[in-house]
Amino acid sequence: MNVFTSTEGQDSPAHEQVVFCQDQKTGLKAIIGIYSTALGPALGGTRFYPYASEEDALRDVLDLARSMAYKNALAGLDHGGGKAVIWGDPERIKSEALLRAYGRFVQSLNGRYYTACDVGTYVADMDVIARETRFVTGRSAEHGGAGDSSVLTAWGLFQGMRAAAEHTWGAPTLAGRRVGVAGLGKVGKFLVGHLIDDGAEVVATDVSAKATAWTREKYPQVDLVTDTAALITSDIDVYAPCALGGALNDDTVPVLRAKVVVGGANNQLAHPGIEKLLADRGVLYAPDYVVNAGGVIQVADEIEGFNFERAKLRASRIYETTRDILRLADADGVPPVAAADQLAERRMAEVGRLRAIHLR
């Protein structure tokens, strides 16, 4: 079943298209959200997660699709913003048949949306989905893809963190700083390596015993703590939320001891107004959709014909983009989120307008 619905009445009414997808025999229940195609086909990953309700899944896909539009705009990509969620426990229901059914739904959009990996989906899953659609990226190297996009997500995140450190302490390095990493999954584990190489002290946590065990073996110098609450109330200079969204909320911000927040998780602000609460406490927040764009830069490059060095060079520019946004925020007296939104909306409007020019 393929149902197109308006988002009228939702918190994000500006979405171009929302598609509900269902295949009862495989257990597939998915939602594809397209926020904007002003800059080109929407690009964003597929999240496979056991949401408590369909309403939660819909809310997440709407928020994530909007973030992808702004992320792609600020990364300089010729892609709009979209996202998809598959509602269910990937450990129980993920199968070849389900992924291929999902690929058929992606194909039915005729290129308005390109999918890739996200929480709960992996490179191998993209290879399966690609058997039913050509509008998929983030595939394995043996299938002509770019492989794990978290590699450049972590690299770009580290560049954003360098820019935030320069803005706060005068030098683009984390050397001698204590960085708290919440989440040691796809992105967090690579970020830890960059931080240690740069001379930072790292304290970290993860809900997965497997992830913490891997970190303990790979980086014995990392100080592992029991949970995020212990992490954010510890003596850290930088907080890097790298798990699920909503990490910055009415409970965590008042007790956060870090002066800088730069993380890989999407939608870190639990609701509008949190950015002001951070600013009022003197905490510098680098917008997540700016600093974690390395992954989407990588998978977008794959669509052209992947070249790792070219993609890494593009991801390295997150340093300059973050620096410019932080300077603009200071100059205008607004939180960095407002400055980033302004730049993204300007590019979507200016470049999107060109599509009105008729081409034979």
Automatic annotation (TrEMBL):
Gene3D superfamilies: Leucine Dehydrogenase, chain A, domain 1, NAD(P)-binding Rossmann-like Domain. The keyword Nucleotide-binding applies. It comes from the Bacteria. Keywords: NAD, Nucleotide-binding, Oxidoreductase. It holds the Pfam family ELFV_dehydrog_N. GO terms for biological process: amino acid metabolic process. The keyword GTP-binding does not apply. Belongs to the Glu/Leu/Phe/Val dehydrogenases family. PANTHER family: LEUCINE DEHYDROGENASE, VALINE DEHYDROGENASE. This is Valine dehydrogenase. It comes from Phytohabitans rumicis.
